[in-house]
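Question (not urgent): is this output format expected?
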Amino acid sequence: NAKASEKERLKITKRWILADKSGHFLLFSILALSLAAGFHRQRYMLLIIVIAMFAGTTEVMQFFVNDRTPQIRDWLIDFGGAVSGFILFAAAGKKISPAAGHTMPQETID
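Got this back:
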């Protein structure tokens, strides 16, 4: 039945799009988490700008690939993933950092 196969094809396409967009969101979240772990907080805005530019570059490169089209929506998904990665890192850092007013003990060499 042609109608049934068309419906099935649309279901598969929708699943693939969801998996693709979720994968990009997750990938950029992991990228932001990794970069945030290696840089001081004062550099976070710079890192967000760099990641936004990287996401934009990946979209612009699609002009040069057959059957691909750059989309603002994809850039927003990538950027949203990056911002969520930074938010997760900041939230985790607050939970594992020492209580306010206390400092971590430091080793001394005698």
